[in-house]
């Protein structure tokens, strides 16, 4: 770049950065994410590294950027307040560490540096001035020399002592720290705002900054603010030898010291600290945006000194940003397993918290409205750790001049998958559902994927791709090209020798509901993209290849026309799935509320699908691990015709609907319901249940009129009383053993 242009670029960047700093510090209402701000700042630093003549004293890189607003009286700090040098990667941290060690080796040859490692609190800097133990002034950082007088506001914060505890207070002492809003308090406060119909605060940092800058201290007093100290400025009448020595002393005087600080001896330990705190980043009292590493010893700190903006004895390692901005390209809808239609944001792919994000759920139409986003907007998005990414809201100023490209999202009236009119499940529900549960391709695909999942029948080949392909023959594997038809080839004048068995893609879905899943044969998959192989014809060389111009497909790869491996796998796996135990079949049925736990409970209580189908709601509700909600859902499910057909079809195909019973065990309890309560000597809870089921009985969890026997062990409790009041016979362990061995007849003697 020519020097003139570079100078202009530098001036433009500097101006932009100053603008963002003002909005961030004085108005607590930033226009861009911190990550983007940091990027601008780094660009300016890079330009200056190449052209040091541009690094003038008024460049943002040379100044602590906060500035002071008119709203507060200016205050001169006794000692300058600094910012911190940021490092954004392990390499940068290692380089910083190496430099510091090398400099110290030269400046203080006898010293062994120790590293005080702290979390970087996402709040705002404060300087507290104590005279003879009394708080006389509190000021923001400002430009580092002059801050703003916020004494009245700071006095409302409980963590900040007005008088120091203990004795031997210095004549004068500047304490530096960070004011923050604890994460829990932040969420509680936002809920309170929401309940009052007010806009929530964007994040704990802006919340703290905004709260401290209230003109009316009474307003600040309403905000839950806290503080931790992280340094000392000017002092007289006290001898402090190191950072940690200072913290000990400040703690003794009643000042709040961070519990997360450690003293470490080498880079390796520092990196461990980084990882450990990144992993529990959201479990701390407050939000953090990184870790600060400081040379502990004050004499060594003095030797290393400062630049005009940052100390050379400290570095802030910034964690990957959790908040960035990107373009909201579109809003589309997803139809879930239960027919719920949820809008989601299609985003221009962007890195957040170390992973790429290109989609984010928007939950429902009310949420889209509340977020006030338009399709085409630039939006703030957040991804905190493992939490799913979230669209926070639009970058309003970025709309300027782009109004034409923006438009409002309209929630569809019909299912995007099958066209059925959407409806609320019950009155007042925000969510809309597609009522075409049986054969809506999207719902069916989700159910099939669920059937194939690990927790259900565990079918390799019936995952995302398989599930979609069975419901949409046009669905293609990533990279799978579209088939070119004979007609298209014919019209092109190129002669392609189509293989005899090459055939068109089928136009109709393989499955209309899951009833026929286990009746499929490889033949049925001939027309489906996902199970076909591709061959390409290169007209120039008249040969087949993997990459040629014409994509011509044959239905299976093998020369003899037999299924390819992908197809074989699916069918071997489906065969295997038929042998899965009953509880897994129950999971696979997608009955509301019936996950693995309820399925196991049902399977062990009844042992067969027929008996579950026959059980009434009250009886089901009595099973341990079932309860009324699940019982109602089970009854509801069986009341649907096509569900009944589905079970019959699966059973006819050989899916096991009955758990193995040991044939050698006599069926002494056929038709009996037995409840076991309290602890038995020679049976565990599961063993007593299994013993009942193995003999054809039902092991229920609670006593009702339908209970045939209650077995009461040690500490039987209220069930025994209930049984007596209902006239249900109560057995002890010996009698239980007799019952198991001989059935009810045995008890009569
Ligand atoms: N989004 C925007 O428009 C915008 C504008 C300006 C600044 N910013 C953001 O603000 C930050 C830059 O501000 P900065 O100059 O205050 O630098 P900084 O936040 O990177 O680091 C310096 C500050 O960290 C604080 N701090 C927290 N924990 C600390 C600890 N344990 N020890 C010492 N200090 C600790 C101190 O207040 C100190 O002044 C960056 O994250 C930047 O992205 C954003
Ligand atoms: Zn539908």
From TrEMBL:
It comes from the Bacteria. GO terms for molecular function: ligase activity. Coiled coil: none annotated. Its cofactor is Mg(2+); Mn(2+). The keyword Cell membrane does not apply. Zn(2+) binds at residues 415, 418, 434, 440. The active site is at 120 (n6-amp-lysine intermediate). It catalyses: NAD(+) + (deoxyribonucleotide)n-3'-hydroxyl + 5'-phospho-(deoxyribonucleotide)m = (deoxyribonucleotide)n+m + AMP + beta-nicotinamide D-nucleotide. Pfam families: BRCT, DNA_ligase_aden, DNA_ligase_ZBD, HHH_2, OB_DNA_ligase. Its EC number is 6.5.1.2. The keyword Thylakoid does not apply. Residues 664-734 form the BRCT domain. NAD(+) binds at residues 34-38, 83-84, 118, 141, 178, 294, 318. Keywords: DNA damage, DNA repair, DNA replication, Ligase, Magnesium, Manganese, Metal-binding, NAD, Zinc. Belongs to the NAD-dependent DNA ligase family. LigA subfamily. DNA ligase that catalyzes the formation of phosphodiester linkages between 5'-phosphoryl and 3'-hydroxyl groups in double-stranded DNA using NAD as a coenzyme and as the energy source for the reaction. It is essential for DNA replication and repair of damaged DNA. NCBIfam families: dnlj, PRK07956.1. This is DNA ligase. It comes from Nesterenkonia halobia.
């Amino acid at each position: 770049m020519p020097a003139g242009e570079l100078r202009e670029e530098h001036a433009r960047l500097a101006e932009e950065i100053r603008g963002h700093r003002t909005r961030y510090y004085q108005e607590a209402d930033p226009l861009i994410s911190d990550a983007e701000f940091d990027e601008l700042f780094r660009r300016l630093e890079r330009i200056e590294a190449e052209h040091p003549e541009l690094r003038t004293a008024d460049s943002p890189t040379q100044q602590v950027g906060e500035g002071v607003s008119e709203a507060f009286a200016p205050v001169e700090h006794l000692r300058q307040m600094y910012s911190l040098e940021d490092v954004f990667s392990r390499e940068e941290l290692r380089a910083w560490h190496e430099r510091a060690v090398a400099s110290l080796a030269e400046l203080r040859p006898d010293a062994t540096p120790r590293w005080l490692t702290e979390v970087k609190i996402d709040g705002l800097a404060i300087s507290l001035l104590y005279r003879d133990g009394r708080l006389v002034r509190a000021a923001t950082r400002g430009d580092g020399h002059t801050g703003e007088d916020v004494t009245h506001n700071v006095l409302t914060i409980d963590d900040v002592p007005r008088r120091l505890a203990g004795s031997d207070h210095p004549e004068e002492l500047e304490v530096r720290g960070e004011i923050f809003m604890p994460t829990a308090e932040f969420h509680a406060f936002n809920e309170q705002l929401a309940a009052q119909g007010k806009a929530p605060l964007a994040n704990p940092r802006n919340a703290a900054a905004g709260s401290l800058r209230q003109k009316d201290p009474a307003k600040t007093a309403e905000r839950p603010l806290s503080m931790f100290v992280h340094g000392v400025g000017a002092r007289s009448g006290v001898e402090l030898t190191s950072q940690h020595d200072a913290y000990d002393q400040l703690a003794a005087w009643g000042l709040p010291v961070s519990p997360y600080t450690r003293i470490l001896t080498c880079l390796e330990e520092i990196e461990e600290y980084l990882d450990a705190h990144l992993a529990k980043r959201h479990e701390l009292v407050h939000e953090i945006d990184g870790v600060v590493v400081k040379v502990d010893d004050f004499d060594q700190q003095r030797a290393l000194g400062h630049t005009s903006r940052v100390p050379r004895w400290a570095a802030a390692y910034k964690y990957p940003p959790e908040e960035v901005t990107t373009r909201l390209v579109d809003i589309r809808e997803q139809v879930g397993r239960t027919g719920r239609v949820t809008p989601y944001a299609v985003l221009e792919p962007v890195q957040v918290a170390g992973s790429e994000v290109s989609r984010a759920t928007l939950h429902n139409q009310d949420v889209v409205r509340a977020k006030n986003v338009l399709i085409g907007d630039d939006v703030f998005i957040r991804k905190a750790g493992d939490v799913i990414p979230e669209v926070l809201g639009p970058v309003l100023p970025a709309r300027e001049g782009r109004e034409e490209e923006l438009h409002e999202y309209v929630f569809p009236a019909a299912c995007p998958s099958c066209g059925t009119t959407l409806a609320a499940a019950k009155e007042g529900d925000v969510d809309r559902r597609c009522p075409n549960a049986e054969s809506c391709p999207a719902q069916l695909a989700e159910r099939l994927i669920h059937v194939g999942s690990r927790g259900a029948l565990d079918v390799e080949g019936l995952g995302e791709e398989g599930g979609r392909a069975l419901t949409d023959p046009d669905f293609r594997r990533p990279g799978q090209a579209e088939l070119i038809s004979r007609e298209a080839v014919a019209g092109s004048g190129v002669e392609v020798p189509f293989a005899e068995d090459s055939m068109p893609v089928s136009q109709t879905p393989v499955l209309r509901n899951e009833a026929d899943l286990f009746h499929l044969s490889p033949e049925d998959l001939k027309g489906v993209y996902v199970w076909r192989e591709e061959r390409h014809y290169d007209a120039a060389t008249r040969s087949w290849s993997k990459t040629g111009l014409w994509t011509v497909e044959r239905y299976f790869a093998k020369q003899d026309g037999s299924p390819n491996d992908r197809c074989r796998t699916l069918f071997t796996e489906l065969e295997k799935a038929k042998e899965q135990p009953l509880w897994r079949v129950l999971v696979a049925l997608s009955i509301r509320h019936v996950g693995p736990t309820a399925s196991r409970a049902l399977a062990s209580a009844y042992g067969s699908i027929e008996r579950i189908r026959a059980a009434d709601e009250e009886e089901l509700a009595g099973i341990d691990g079932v309860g009324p909600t699940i019982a109602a859902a089970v009854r509801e499910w069986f009341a649907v015709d096509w569900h009944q057909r589905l079970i019959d079809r699966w059973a006819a195909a050989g899916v096991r609907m009955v758990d193995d019973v040991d044939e050698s065990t006599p069926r002494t309890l056929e038709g009996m319901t037995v409840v076991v309560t309290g602890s038995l000597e020679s049976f565990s809870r599961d063993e007593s249940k299994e013993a009942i089921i193995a003999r054809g009985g039902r092991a229920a969890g609670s006593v009702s009129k339908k209970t045939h026997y209650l077995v009461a062990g040690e500490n039987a409790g209220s069930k025994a009383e209930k049984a007596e009041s209902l006239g249900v016979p109560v057995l002890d362990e010996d009698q239980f053993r007799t019952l198991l061995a001989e059935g009810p007849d045995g008890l009569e003697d």
